[in-house]
Protein backbone atom coordinates (compact mmCIF):
# COMPACT_ATOMS: atom_id res chain seq x y z
CA UNK A 1 0.00 0.00 0.00
CA UNK A 2 2.55 2.54 1.16
CA UNK A 3 5.10 1.97 -1.61
CA UNK A 4 2.42 2.27 -4.26
CA UNK A 5 1.18 5.53 -2.74
CA UNK A 6 4.73 6.78 -2.66
CA UNK A 7 5.17 5.86 -6.29
CA UNK A 8 1.90 7.54 -7.18
CA UNK A 9 2.94 10.79 -5.47
CA UNK A 10 6.20 10.82 -7.41
CA UNK A 11 4.41 10.08 -10.68
CA UNK A 12 1.77 12.78 -10.08
CA UNK A 13 4.47 15.33 -9.23
CA UNK A 14 6.27 14.41 -12.44
CA UNK A 15 3.08 14.94 -14.46
CA UNK A 16 2.46 18.36 -12.92
CA UNK A 17 6.03 19.45 -13.59
CA UNK A 18 5.90 18.16 -17.14
CA UNK A 19 2.71 20.14 -17.71
CA UNK A 20 4.07 23.48 -16.47
CA UNK A 21 5.48 25.16 -19.55
CA UNK A 22 7.30 28.35 -20.33
CA UNK A 23 4.88 30.31 -22.49
CA UNK A 24 5.70 33.47 -24.43
CA UNK A 25 2.90 35.83 -25.46
CA UNK A 26 4.21 38.31 -28.02
CA UNK A 27 1.79 41.01 -29.16
CA UNK A 28 3.62 44.35 -28.98
CA UNK A 29 1.29 46.35 -31.28
CA UNK A 30 -0.63 49.17 -29.61
CA UNK A 31 -4.05 47.53 -30.00
CA UNK A 32 -5.37 47.62 -26.47
CA UNK A 33 -8.58 45.69 -26.97
CA UNK A 34 -6.74 42.87 -28.73
CA UNK A 35 -4.49 42.31 -25.73
CA UNK A 36 -7.25 42.84 -23.16
CA UNK A 37 -9.56 40.40 -24.92
CA UNK A 38 -7.07 37.57 -24.47
CA UNK A 39 -5.72 38.70 -21.09
CA UNK A 40 -8.00 36.28 -19.15
CA UNK A 41 -6.36 33.40 -21.04
CA UNK A 42 -2.83 34.51 -20.13
CA UNK A 43 -3.77 34.83 -16.45
CA UNK A 44 -5.59 31.52 -16.37
CA UNK A 45 -2.53 29.80 -17.86
CA UNK A 46 -0.35 31.26 -15.11
CA UNK A 47 -2.85 30.15 -12.46
CA UNK A 48 -2.52 26.65 -13.81
CA UNK A 49 1.19 26.73 -13.11
CA UNK A 50 2.61 27.75 -16.49
CA UNK A 51 5.28 30.44 -16.49
CA UNK A 52 3.76 33.10 -18.73
CA UNK A 53 5.78 35.99 -20.18
CA UNK A 54 3.70 38.67 -21.89
CA UNK A 55 5.42 41.12 -24.23
CA UNK A 56 2.86 43.84 -24.93
CA UNK A 57 2.26 47.57 -24.87
CA UNK A 58 -0.22 47.13 -22.01
CA UNK A 59 1.44 45.63 -18.91
CA UNK A 60 -0.72 44.90 -15.87
CA UNK A 61 -0.45 47.36 -13.01
CA UNK A 62 -0.37 44.53 -10.44
CA UNK A 63 1.80 41.55 -9.61
CA UNK A 64 0.54 38.19 -10.84
CA UNK A 65 2.21 34.94 -9.78
CA UNK A 66 3.99 33.01 -12.56
CA UNK A 67 3.43 35.97 -14.88
CA UNK A 68 6.02 38.42 -16.21
CA UNK A 69 5.20 41.57 -18.17
CA UNK A 70 7.64 43.05 -20.66
CA UNK A 71 6.73 46.47 -22.05
CA UNK A 72 5.25 48.99 -22.74
CA UNK A 73 6.87 50.11 -25.98
CA UNK A 74 4.79 53.14 -26.76
CA UNK A 75 4.19 56.27 -24.72
CA UNK A 76 0.71 57.54 -24.04
CA UNK A 77 1.04 60.68 -26.17
CA UNK A 78 1.85 58.55 -29.20
CA UNK A 79 -1.52 56.87 -29.11
CA UNK A 80 -3.59 57.36 -32.21
CA UNK A 81 -6.58 59.59 -32.64
CA UNK A 82 -8.72 56.85 -34.12
CA UNK A 83 -11.24 59.34 -35.47
CA UNK A 84 -8.95 59.61 -38.52
CA UNK A 85 -10.22 56.18 -39.48
CA UNK A 86 -13.94 56.98 -39.77
CA UNK A 87 -13.70 58.37 -43.28
CA UNK A 88 -12.37 55.27 -44.97
CA UNK A 89 -14.05 53.34 -47.75
CA UNK A 90 -13.76 49.61 -48.28
CA UNK A 91 -10.56 49.75 -50.33
CA UNK A 92 -8.71 52.34 -48.24
CA UNK A 93 -9.53 50.49 -45.03
CA UNK A 94 -7.96 47.32 -46.45
CA UNK A 95 -4.88 49.32 -47.44
CA UNK A 96 -4.74 51.12 -44.09
CA UNK A 97 -4.30 47.80 -42.30
CA UNK A 98 -1.04 47.36 -44.23
CA UNK A 99 -0.01 50.90 -43.44
CA UNK A 100 -0.59 50.36 -39.72
CA UNK A 101 1.55 47.21 -39.85
CA UNK A 102 4.48 49.01 -41.44
CA UNK A 103 4.18 52.18 -39.40
CA UNK A 104 4.04 50.52 -36.00
CA UNK A 105 6.88 48.11 -36.68
CA UNK A 106 9.07 50.91 -35.28
CA UNK A 107 8.07 49.52 -31.89
CA UNK A 108 10.74 46.89 -32.48
CA UNK A 109 13.47 49.52 -32.14
CA UNK A 110 12.43 50.37 -28.57
CA UNK A 111 15.22 49.63 -26.10
CA UNK A 112 13.25 47.16 -23.95
CA UNK A 113 12.19 45.32 -27.10
CA UNK A 114 15.71 45.15 -28.51
CA UNK A 115 16.90 43.79 -25.16
CA UNK A 116 14.21 41.14 -25.16
CA UNK A 117 14.82 40.10 -28.76
CA UNK A 118 18.57 39.84 -28.24
CA UNK A 119 18.71 37.78 -25.04
CA UNK A 120 19.57 34.18 -25.53
CA UNK A 121 19.19 33.14 -21.90
CA UNK A 122 15.45 32.38 -21.93
CA UNK A 123 13.70 29.54 -23.71
CA UNK A 124 10.04 28.91 -24.36
CA UNK A 125 7.94 25.79 -25.00
CA UNK A 126 5.14 27.67 -26.70
CA UNK A 127 4.84 30.99 -28.52
CA UNK A 128 1.49 32.82 -28.65
CA UNK A 129 1.31 35.69 -31.16
CA UNK A 130 -1.15 37.90 -33.01
CA UNK A 131 -0.33 38.07 -36.72
CA UNK A 132 -2.70 40.95 -37.55
CA UNK A 133 -0.41 43.77 -38.82
CA UNK A 134 2.64 41.92 -37.42
CA UNK A 135 3.11 38.72 -39.41
CA UNK A 136 6.87 38.69 -38.65
CA UNK A 137 6.18 37.68 -35.03
CA UNK A 138 5.76 34.09 -36.22
CA UNK A 139 9.57 33.93 -36.50
CA UNK A 140 9.74 33.59 -32.72
CA UNK A 141 8.41 30.05 -33.11
CA UNK A 142 11.54 29.31 -35.13
CA UNK A 143 13.81 31.14 -32.72
CA UNK A 144 12.60 29.15 -29.72
CA UNK A 145 11.91 25.98 -31.69
CA UNK A 146 8.37 26.04 -30.26
CA UNK A 147 4.87 25.59 -31.70
CA UNK A 148 2.97 28.80 -32.47
CA UNK A 149 -0.60 29.76 -31.59
CA UNK A 150 -2.19 32.69 -33.40
CA UNK A 151 -4.76 34.93 -31.69
CA UNK A 152 -7.39 36.62 -33.87
CA UNK A 153 -9.10 39.67 -32.33
CA UNK A 154 -12.25 39.50 -34.50
CA UNK A 155 -13.97 37.12 -36.86
CA UNK A 156 -11.44 35.41 -39.20
CA UNK A 157 -10.67 37.28 -42.41
CA UNK A 158 -8.82 36.30 -45.58
CA UNK A 159 -5.42 37.76 -44.59
CA UNK A 160 -5.32 35.23 -41.76
CA UNK A 161 -7.47 32.34 -42.96
CA UNK A 162 -5.47 31.99 -46.20
CA UNK A 163 -2.36 30.72 -44.38
CA UNK A 164 -4.17 27.87 -42.69
CA UNK A 165 -6.44 27.15 -45.68
CA UNK A 166 -9.74 27.90 -43.99
CA UNK A 167 -12.10 28.70 -46.89
CA UNK A 168 -13.32 32.30 -46.97
CA UNK A 169 -15.90 31.88 -49.73
CA UNK A 170 -16.72 35.40 -50.92
CA UNK A 171 -20.31 34.57 -51.84
CA UNK A 172 -21.53 34.35 -48.25
CA UNK A 173 -18.73 34.97 -45.71
CA UNK A 174 -18.62 38.74 -45.10
CA UNK A 175 -15.20 40.34 -44.77
CA UNK A 176 -14.60 42.03 -41.39
CA UNK A 177 -13.89 45.33 -43.09
CA UNK A 178 -17.27 45.56 -44.83
CA UNK A 179 -20.72 46.54 -43.71
CA UNK A 180 -22.55 43.49 -45.03
CA UNK A 181 -24.04 40.23 -43.82
CA UNK A 182 -24.12 36.75 -45.33
CA UNK A 183 -27.16 37.76 -47.37
CA UNK A 184 -25.40 39.85 -50.04
CA UNK A 185 -26.66 41.78 -53.04
CA UNK A 186 -24.69 41.71 -56.29
CA UNK A 187 -22.72 44.88 -55.44
CA UNK A 188 -21.99 43.60 -51.97
CA UNK A 189 -20.66 40.33 -53.33
CA UNK A 190 -18.49 42.33 -55.72
CA UNK A 191 -17.10 44.45 -52.87
CA UNK A 192 -16.59 41.36 -50.73
CA UNK A 193 -14.70 39.69 -53.58
CA UNK A 194 -12.49 42.74 -54.23
CA UNK A 195 -11.59 43.03 -50.55
CA UNK A 196 -11.00 39.28 -50.39
CA UNK A 197 -8.75 39.27 -53.45
CA UNK A 198 -6.78 42.22 -52.02
CA UNK A 199 -6.17 40.22 -48.85
CA UNK A 200 -5.63 36.85 -50.51
CA UNK A 201 -3.28 37.85 -53.31
CA UNK A 202 -2.41 41.56 -53.75
CA UNK A 203 -1.28 41.75 -50.14
CA UNK A 204 1.38 39.09 -50.79
CA UNK A 205 3.05 41.39 -53.33
CA UNK A 206 2.53 44.83 -51.81
CA UNK A 207 2.63 44.21 -48.09
CA UNK A 208 4.25 40.90 -47.18
CA UNK A 209 7.72 41.87 -48.54
CA UNK A 210 7.68 44.76 -46.05
CA UNK A 211 6.93 42.37 -43.20
CA UNK A 212 9.79 40.14 -44.37
CA UNK A 213 12.08 43.13 -44.31
CA UNK A 214 11.05 43.91 -40.74
CA UNK A 215 11.61 40.28 -39.79
CA UNK A 216 15.06 40.12 -41.36
CA UNK A 217 16.07 43.40 -39.69
CA UNK A 218 14.88 42.78 -36.15
CA UNK A 219 14.60 39.03 -35.68
CA UNK A 220 18.25 38.07 -35.83
CA UNK A 221 19.31 35.20 -33.58
CA UNK A 222 21.49 32.12 -33.69
CA UNK A 223 20.42 30.07 -36.70
CA UNK A 224 18.13 32.67 -38.28
CA UNK A 225 19.79 32.20 -41.68
CA UNK A 226 18.22 28.75 -41.99
CA UNK A 227 14.76 30.07 -41.11
CA UNK A 228 11.90 28.85 -43.37
CA UNK A 229 10.18 31.52 -45.46
CA UNK A 230 7.62 33.76 -43.74
CA UNK A 231 4.88 32.06 -45.78
CA UNK A 232 5.98 28.58 -44.66
CA UNK A 233 6.02 29.61 -41.02
CA UNK A 234 2.55 31.15 -41.31
CA UNK A 235 1.31 27.93 -42.94
CA UNK A 236 2.70 26.05 -39.97
CA UNK A 237 0.79 27.78 -37.15
CA UNK A 238 -0.49 25.04 -34.82
CA UNK A 239 -3.70 26.57 -33.54
CA UNK A 240 -5.80 29.66 -34.21
CA UNK A 241 -7.95 31.05 -31.41
CA UNK A 242 -10.65 33.38 -32.72
CA UNK A 243 -12.53 36.01 -30.75
CA UNK A 244 -15.90 35.13 -32.21
CA UNK A 245 -19.01 33.03 -31.75
CA UNK A 246 -21.93 32.44 -34.10
CA UNK A 247 -24.37 34.13 -31.67
CA UNK A 248 -22.54 37.41 -32.32
CA UNK A 249 -21.00 36.54 -35.69
CA UNK A 250 -21.69 34.27 -38.64
CA UNK A 251 -21.99 30.55 -39.32
CA UNK A 252 -19.06 29.38 -41.42
CA UNK A 253 -16.74 26.40 -41.97
CA UNK A 254 -13.64 25.91 -39.86
CA UNK A 255 -10.84 23.35 -39.49
CA UNK A 256 -10.04 21.35 -36.35
CA UNK A 257 -7.21 23.78 -35.51
CA UNK A 258 -9.45 26.85 -35.47
CA UNK A 259 -11.36 27.42 -32.23
CA UNK A 260 -13.91 30.11 -31.37
CA UNK A 261 -13.24 31.52 -27.92
CA UNK A 262 -15.23 34.78 -28.03
CA UNK A 263 -16.39 35.92 -24.60
CA UNK A 264 -13.42 34.76 -22.51
CA UNK A 265 -13.48 38.07 -20.70
CA UNK A 266 -17.01 37.58 -19.38
CA UNK A 267 -16.94 36.63 -15.72
CA UNK A 268 -19.83 35.91 -13.40
CA UNK A 269 -21.04 39.34 -12.38
CA UNK A 270 -19.83 40.88 -9.14
CA UNK A 271 -21.92 43.09 -6.92
CA UNK A 272 -21.82 46.78 -7.79
CA UNK A 273 -20.36 49.52 -5.63
CA UNK A 274 -22.91 51.15 -3.34
CA UNK A 275 -23.28 54.40 -5.28
CA UNK A 276 -23.73 52.62 -8.60
CA UNK A 277 -26.23 50.25 -7.03
CA UNK A 278 -28.22 53.17 -5.60
CA UNK A 279 -28.06 55.09 -8.87
CA UNK A 280 -29.32 52.14 -10.89
CA UNK A 281 -32.00 50.99 -8.49
CA UNK A 282 -33.42 54.46 -7.94
CA UNK A 283 -34.10 54.83 -11.67
CA UNK A 284 -37.83 54.59 -12.04
CA UNK A 285 -37.69 54.23 -15.85
CA UNK A 286 -34.56 52.13 -15.97
CA UNK A 287 -30.96 52.88 -16.88
CA UNK A 288 -29.09 53.24 -20.17
CA UNK A 289 -25.40 52.40 -20.24
CA UNK A 290 -23.41 54.52 -22.73
CA UNK A 291 -19.81 53.64 -23.62
CA UNK A 292 -17.78 53.86 -26.81
CA UNK A 293 -15.12 51.49 -25.50
CA UNK A 294 -11.47 52.03 -24.72
CA UNK A 295 -10.26 53.32 -28.10
CA UNK A 296 -12.70 56.11 -28.95
CA UNK A 297 -12.20 59.21 -26.88
CA UNK A 298 -15.31 61.40 -26.88
CA UNK A 299 -13.06 64.44 -26.52
CA UNK A 300 -11.81 63.80 -30.06
CA UNK A 301 -15.32 64.15 -31.52
CA UNK A 302 -16.34 67.44 -33.12
CA UNK A 303 -18.38 69.70 -30.86
CA UNK A 304 -21.58 69.40 -32.89
CA UNK A 305 -21.54 65.59 -32.62
CA UNK A 306 -20.99 65.78 -28.88
CA UNK A 307 -23.93 68.16 -28.60
CA UNK A 308 -26.12 65.65 -30.43
CA UNK A 309 -25.16 62.87 -28.02
CA UNK A 310 -25.56 64.95 -24.88
CA UNK A 311 -28.61 66.86 -26.06
CA UNK A 312 -30.35 63.54 -26.66
CA UNK A 313 -29.49 61.71 -23.47
CA UNK A 314 -30.25 64.69 -21.26
CA UNK A 315 -33.84 64.71 -22.47
CA UNK A 316 -34.44 61.03 -21.70
CA UNK A 317 -36.53 60.04 -18.73
CA UNK A 318 -34.16 57.11 -18.15
CA UNK A 319 -31.01 57.57 -16.12
CA UNK A 320 -27.76 57.32 -18.10
CA UNK A 321 -24.35 56.00 -17.06
CA UNK A 322 -21.81 57.60 -19.41
CA UNK A 323 -18.21 56.40 -19.64
CA UNK A 324 -16.53 59.72 -20.23
CA UNK A 325 -14.98 62.58 -18.24
CA UNK A 326 -16.29 65.84 -19.69
CA UNK A 327 -14.00 68.85 -19.53
CA UNK A 328 -14.95 71.66 -17.14
CA UNK A 329 -17.02 73.65 -19.66
CA UNK A 330 -19.66 70.94 -20.06
CA UNK A 331 -22.37 70.52 -17.47
CA UNK A 332 -24.64 67.54 -17.84
CA UNK A 333 -28.04 67.21 -16.21
CA UNK A 334 -28.88 65.22 -13.10
CA UNK A 335 -29.89 62.03 -14.89
CA UNK A 336 -26.37 61.46 -16.27
CA UNK A 337 -23.60 59.84 -14.23
CA UNK A 338 -20.13 60.17 -15.77
CA UNK A 339 -16.86 58.42 -15.00
CA UNK A 340 -13.61 57.43 -16.70
CA UNK A 341 -14.25 53.73 -16.08
CA UNK A 342 -17.20 51.58 -15.06
CA UNK A 343 -17.56 47.84 -14.39
CA UNK A 344 -19.35 47.43 -17.72
CA UNK A 345 -20.20 43.78 -17.40
CA UNK A 346 -21.60 44.12 -13.86
CA UNK A 347 -23.70 47.08 -14.96
CA UNK A 348 -25.09 45.21 -17.97
CA UNK A 349 -25.93 42.31 -15.66
CA UNK A 350 -28.28 44.48 -13.60
CA UNK A 351 -31.96 43.90 -14.43
CA UNK A 352 -32.79 47.61 -14.27
CA UNK A 353 -30.37 48.38 -17.12
CA UNK A 354 -32.49 48.43 -20.27
CA UNK A 355 -30.24 49.51 -23.12
CA UNK A 356 -26.59 49.73 -24.11
CA UNK A 357 -25.42 52.59 -26.35
CA UNK A 358 -22.19 51.34 -27.89
CA UNK A 359 -19.72 51.71 -30.77
CA UNK A 360 -20.32 48.09 -31.73
CA UNK A 361 -16.97 46.70 -30.57
CA UNK A 362 -16.91 42.93 -30.33
CA UNK A 363 -16.18 42.66 -26.60
CA UNK A 364 -19.06 44.99 -25.80
CA UNK A 365 -21.43 43.04 -28.01
CA UNK A 366 -20.39 39.74 -26.46
CA UNK A 367 -21.20 41.16 -23.03
CA UNK A 368 -24.49 42.68 -24.08
CA UNK A 369 -25.62 39.43 -25.70
CA UNK A 370 -24.55 37.45 -22.65
CA UNK A 371 -26.62 39.70 -20.38
CA UNK A 372 -29.43 40.05 -22.93
CA UNK A 373 -29.46 43.84 -23.29
CA UNK A 374 -30.53 45.33 -26.65
CA UNK A 375 -28.31 48.00 -28.22
CA UNK A 376 -28.24 51.26 -30.12
CA UNK A 377 -24.91 51.70 -31.85
CA UNK A 378 -22.86 54.34 -33.63
CA UNK A 379 -20.15 52.28 -35.36
CA UNK A 380 -16.93 54.08 -36.34
CA UNK A 381 -14.42 51.79 -38.08
CA UNK A 382 -12.89 48.34 -38.41
CA UNK A 383 -15.25 45.46 -37.74
CA UNK A 384 -17.78 47.65 -35.91
CA UNK A 385 -19.90 48.19 -39.04
CA UNK A 386 -20.03 44.48 -39.75
CA UNK A 387 -20.80 43.64 -36.12
CA UNK A 388 -23.72 46.04 -36.08
CA UNK A 389 -25.05 44.91 -39.44
CA UNK A 390 -25.27 41.44 -37.90
CA UNK A 391 -26.99 42.84 -34.82
CA UNK A 392 -29.63 44.50 -37.01
CA UNK A 393 -30.17 41.30 -38.96
CA UNK A 394 -30.64 39.35 -35.75
CA UNK A 395 -33.04 42.07 -34.60
CA UNK A 396 -31.67 43.12 -31.23
CA UNK A 397 -30.52 46.64 -31.96
CA UNK A 398 -30.45 49.68 -34.20
CA UNK A 399 -27.61 51.47 -35.94
CA UNK A 400 -27.33 55.24 -36.21
CA UNK A 401 -24.98 56.59 -38.87
CA UNK A 402 -22.25 58.77 -37.38
CA UNK A 403 -22.18 61.23 -40.27
CA UNK A 404 -25.93 61.73 -40.41
CA UNK A 405 -26.71 61.61 -36.72
CA UNK A 406 -29.16 64.18 -35.36
CA UNK A 407 -30.88 64.49 -31.99
CA UNK A 408 -33.99 63.27 -33.73
CA UNK A 409 -32.54 60.13 -35.37
CA UNK A 410 -30.53 59.19 -32.28
CA UNK A 411 -33.46 59.85 -29.94
CA UNK A 412 -35.88 57.90 -32.13
CA UNK A 413 -33.57 54.88 -32.26
CA UNK A 414 -33.29 54.88 -28.47
CA UNK A 415 -37.05 55.22 -28.02
CA UNK A 416 -37.82 52.50 -30.53
CA UNK A 417 -35.48 49.93 -28.98
CA UNK A 418 -36.76 50.73 -25.49
CA UNK A 419 -40.44 50.62 -26.36
CA UNK A 420 -40.63 47.73 -28.84
CA UNK A 421 -40.36 44.41 -26.92
CA UNK A 422 -39.16 42.50 -30.01
CA UNK A 423 -35.62 43.85 -29.51
CA UNK A 424 -35.49 42.47 -25.99
CA UNK A 425 -37.01 39.16 -27.08
CA UNK A 426 -34.47 38.75 -29.89
CA UNK A 427 -31.51 39.48 -27.66
CA UNK A 428 -32.81 36.91 -25.17
CA UNK A 429 -32.79 34.29 -27.93
CA UNK A 430 -29.17 35.13 -28.85
CA UNK A 431 -28.25 35.12 -25.17
CA UNK A 432 -29.62 31.60 -24.76
CA UNK A 433 -27.63 30.41 -27.80
CA UNK A 434 -24.50 32.12 -26.51
CA UNK A 435 -24.74 30.63 -23.02
CA UNK A 436 -25.57 27.11 -24.17
CA UNK A 437 -22.03 25.83 -24.75
CA UNK A 438 -20.41 22.57 -23.56
CA UNK A 439 -17.67 24.52 -21.80
CA UNK A 440 -16.98 28.18 -21.10
CA UNK A 441 -14.88 29.98 -23.77
CA UNK A 442 -12.00 30.46 -21.32
CA UNK A 443 -11.91 26.76 -20.42
CA UNK A 444 -12.02 25.88 -24.09
CA UNK A 445 -9.10 28.19 -24.87
CA UNK A 446 -7.02 26.75 -22.03
CA UNK A 447 -7.83 23.19 -23.09
CA UNK A 448 -6.63 23.80 -26.65
CA UNK A 449 -3.49 25.69 -25.63
CA UNK A 450 -2.49 22.79 -23.38
CA UNK A 451 -3.48 20.35 -26.10
CA UNK A 452 -0.90 21.94 -28.40
CA UNK A 453 1.73 21.67 -25.65
CA UNK A 454 0.83 18.02 -24.88
CA UNK A 455 0.90 17.06 -28.55
CA UNK A 456 4.14 18.78 -29.53
CA UNK A 457 2.53 21.33 -31.85
CA UNK A 458 -0.41 19.14 -32.87
CA UNK A 459 0.51 19.10 -36.55
CA UNK A 460 -2.44 16.76 -37.19
CA UNK A 461 -4.85 19.69 -36.66
CA UNK A 462 -3.62 21.36 -39.83
CA UNK A 463 -5.51 21.17 -43.09
CA UNK A 464 -4.37 18.39 -45.40
CA UNK A 465 -4.38 21.00 -48.15
CA UNK A 466 -1.54 23.28 -46.97
CA UNK A 467 0.93 21.48 -49.25
CA UNK A 468 -1.15 22.24 -52.36
CA UNK A 469 -0.57 25.30 -54.51
CA UNK A 470 -3.50 27.38 -55.80
CA UNK A 471 -3.53 25.59 -59.15
CA UNK A 472 -3.96 22.22 -57.47
CA UNK A 473 -6.27 23.49 -54.72
CA UNK A 474 -8.74 25.10 -57.11
CA UNK A 475 -8.29 22.25 -59.64
CA UNK A 476 -7.30 24.73 -62.38
CA UNK A 477 -5.14 22.04 -64.02
CA UNK A 478 -8.05 19.58 -64.07
CA UNK A 479 -10.48 22.19 -65.38
CA UNK A 480 -7.96 23.08 -68.10
CA UNK A 481 -7.61 19.44 -69.24
CA UNK A 482 -11.38 18.93 -69.13
CA UNK A 483 -11.91 22.06 -71.23
CA UNK A 484 -9.41 20.83 -73.84
CA UNK A 485 -11.16 17.47 -73.86
CA UNK A 486 -14.57 19.10 -74.38
CA UNK A 487 -13.21 21.30 -77.15
CA UNK A 488 -11.70 18.21 -78.85
CA UNK A 489 -14.97 16.29 -78.64
CA UNK A 490 -17.02 19.21 -79.99
CA UNK A 491 -14.47 19.78 -82.75
CA UNK A 492 -14.51 16.08 -83.77
CA UNK A 493 -18.31 16.02 -83.79
CA UNK A 494 -18.26 19.11 -85.98
CA UNK A 495 -15.77 17.53 -88.41
CA UNK A 496 -17.86 14.33 -88.64
CA UNK A 497 -21.04 16.30 -89.29
CA UNK A 498 -19.35 18.46 -91.95
CA UNK A 499 -17.79 15.40 -93.69
CA UNK A 500 -21.06 13.47 -93.73
CA UNK A 501 -22.93 16.51 -94.95
CA UNK A 502 -20.48 17.03 -97.83
CA UNK A 503 -20.84 13.31 -98.76
CA UNK A 504 -24.61 13.68 -98.91
CA UNK A 505 -24.36 16.69 -101.21
C1 LIG B 1 2.50 29.19 -9.97
O1 LIG B 1 3.00 27.99 -10.54
C2 LIG B 1 3.19 26.93 -9.63
C3 LIG B 1 3.80 25.76 -10.39
O2 LIG B 1 4.74 26.18 -11.33
C4 LIG B 1 1.87 26.55 -9.02
O3 LIG B 1 2.05 25.51 -8.07
C5 LIG B 1 1.25 27.75 -8.34
O4 LIG B 1 -0.03 27.43 -7.88
C6 LIG B 1 1.16 28.93 -9.31
N1 LIG B 1 0.76 30.11 -8.55
C7 LIG B 1 -0.44 30.70 -8.70
C8 LIG B 1 -0.72 31.84 -7.78
O5 LIG B 1 -1.25 30.39 -9.55
C1 LIG C 1 9.68 32.47 -16.03
O1 LIG C 1 9.79 33.46 -17.03
C2 LIG C 1 10.63 34.54 -16.66
C3 LIG C 1 10.55 35.63 -17.72
O2 LIG C 1 10.77 35.13 -18.99
C4 LIG C 1 12.05 34.02 -16.46
O3 LIG C 1 12.89 35.08 -16.07
C5 LIG C 1 12.04 32.93 -15.39
O4 LIG C 1 13.33 32.37 -15.28
C6 LIG C 1 11.05 31.85 -15.72
N1 LIG C 1 10.92 30.92 -14.59
C7 LIG C 1 11.09 29.61 -14.75
C8 LIG C 1 10.89 28.80 -13.51
O5 LIG C 1 11.37 29.09 -15.81
C1 LIG D 1 6.33 23.49 -38.03
O1 LIG D 1 6.05 23.34 -36.64
C2 LIG D 1 6.64 22.21 -36.06
C3 LIG D 1 6.15 22.05 -34.62
O2 LIG D 1 5.69 23.19 -34.07
C4 LIG D 1 8.15 22.31 -36.16
O3 LIG D 1 8.75 21.19 -35.59
C5 LIG D 1 8.56 22.47 -37.63
O4 LIG D 1 9.95 22.67 -37.73
C6 LIG D 1 7.84 23.65 -38.26
N1 LIG D 1 8.11 23.71 -39.70
C7 LIG D 1 8.25 24.87 -40.38
C8 LIG D 1 8.48 24.75 -41.84
O5 LIG D 1 8.19 25.95 -39.84
TrEMBL record:
The keyword Magnesium does not apply. Residues 1-20 form the signal peptide. Its EC number is 2.4.1.17. The keyword DNA damage does not apply. Coiled coil: none annotated. Keywords: Endoplasmic reticulum, Glycoprotein, Glycosyltransferase, Membrane, Signal, Transferase, Transmembrane, Transmembrane helix. It catalyses: glucuronate acceptor + UDP-alpha-D-glucuronate = acceptor beta-D-glucuronoside + UDP + H(+). Gene3D superfamilies: Glycogen Phosphorylase B (3.40.50.2000). It is a single-pass type I membrane protein; Single-pass membrane protein. The chain crosses the membrane at residues 473-497. It is an enzyme of class 2 (transferase). Its main location: membrane. GO terms for molecular function: glucuronosyltransferase activity. It is found in: Endomembrane system; Endoplasmic reticulum; Membrane. CDD domains: GT1_Gtf-like. GO terms for cellular component: endoplasmic reticulum; membrane. PANTHER family: EG:EG0003.4 PROTEIN-RELATED. Belongs to the UDP-glycosyltransferase family. This is UDP-glucuronosyltransferase. It comes from Acyrthosiphon pisum (Pea aphid). The lineage of its organism: Eukaryota, Metazoa, Ecdysozoa, Arthropoda, Hexapoda.
Amino acid sequence: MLPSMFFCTIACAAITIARASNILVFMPMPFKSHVRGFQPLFEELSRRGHNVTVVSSYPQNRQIANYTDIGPFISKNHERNVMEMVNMNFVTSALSVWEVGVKFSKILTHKAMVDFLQTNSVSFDLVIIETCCQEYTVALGHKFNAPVINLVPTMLWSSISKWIHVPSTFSYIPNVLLEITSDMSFTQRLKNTITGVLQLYIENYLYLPKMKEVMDTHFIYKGWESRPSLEDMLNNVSLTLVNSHHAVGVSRPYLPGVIDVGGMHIKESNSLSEDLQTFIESAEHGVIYFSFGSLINLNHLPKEKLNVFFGTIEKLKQKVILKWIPDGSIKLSQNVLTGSWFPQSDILAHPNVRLFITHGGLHSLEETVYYAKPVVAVPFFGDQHLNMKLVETKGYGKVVDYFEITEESFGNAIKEVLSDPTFKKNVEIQSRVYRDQPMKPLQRAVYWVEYVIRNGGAGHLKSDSVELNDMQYFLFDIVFILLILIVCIVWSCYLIVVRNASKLL
